[in-house]
Prior knowledge:
This protein has one domain: 3-Layer(aba) Sandwich (Rossmann fold), CATH 3.40.50. Helix 1 (16-27) crosses helix 7 and helix 3 (65-78) packs parallel to helix 4 (101-129). The longest helix has 29 residues, at 101-129. By secondary structure, it is an alpha/beta fold. It is 40% helix and 15% strand. Bound molecules: 1,4-dihydronicotinamide adenine dinucleotide (NAI) and the ligand C[C@H](O)[C@@H]1OC(=O)[C@H](O)[C@@H]1O. Residues 11-12, 14-18, 36-38, 60-62, 87-91, 110, 138, 140, 183, 185-186, 188-191 line the site of 1,4-dihydronicotinamide adenine dinucleotide.
Amino acid sequence: MLLKDKTVIVTGGSRGIGAAVAIGCAQHGANVVVSHHSNADEVVAAIQALGRGVVAVKGDVADPATGSLLVQAAVEHFGGVDVLVSNAGICPFHAFLDMPPETLKRTMEVNLHGAYFVTQAVANRMKEQGRGGSIIAMSSISALVGGEFQTHYTPTKAGVHSLMQSCAIALGKYGIRCNSLLPGTILTDINKDDLADLDKKAYFEKRIPLGRLGQPEDLVGPAVFLASDMAQYVTGAALLVDGGMFVNLQ
Ligand SMILES: NC(=O)C1=CN([C@@H]2O[C@H](COP(=O)(O)OP(=O)(O)OC[C@H]3O[C@@H](n4cnc5c(N)ncnc54)[C@H](O)[C@@H]3O)[C@@H](O)[C@H]2O)C=CC1
Ligand SMILES: C[C@H](O)[C@@H]1OC(=O)[C@H](O)[C@@H]1O
């Protein structure tokens, strides 16, 4: 029980990586605030079945007010917040030369500004509580490498990684640790259409030394580790969770 009675906020917790991490944290003893933009009924039921506390809060992370609402829910239901997993994100694949300004703007607002606002609201609460905390941003292998149809997306993933580095410095004095996870290619709704291109899917599979694409559950161990006291001296770090895809040049 690495997270026994800790309170964890997971943004984008309704499906994919966020849902797996929310349930994984509950399996390790945490109560969870599931921040979502759609419907979180399944995740809520799964966490209730584990006998842990759970509350779902609907809202757009791009709205600066959402962070405070998430903190408020954590305080009302569980008395405070110990961990934030800033995971909500979008990747509407599109070519560079005719990128619609609205698509660029929205991707930046959700992925980067959203992470910023929620991190800021949670960090203020953690500072007030005076017992430290752990903030984890879901960055990406895409913070390190490019993508032809991800010119609006990869800068946001480099951005959230950079945000965690700067926050590690700004918040270290309060005992708040800030790290990022860099998933490789994980099978979720975000890339369902992209990976319908079977040649592309086969290329990824061939490039991954561990021989398979990732599953959302592959992020649970790394997230729980960074959330827990096992990582008490880890801050400003970035952990690739990609089956070895990044390092496999030839
Ligand atoms: N699937 C992959 O291969 C990889 C994903 N990631 C990152 O992992 C995170 C989770 O992605 P997946 O689980 O793959 O995708 P997903 O599409 O399955 O889940 C995204 C989640 O974010 C929520 N969300 C989207 N826009 C939101 C908004 N404006 N406000 C609040 N919530 C919002 C969705 O409701 C959903 O719960 C994203 O930040 C993504 O960039 C990073 C590397 C690889
Ligand atoms: C959406 C992509 O398929 C996924 O997200 C990322 O961050 C990586 O680029 C993955 O391939």
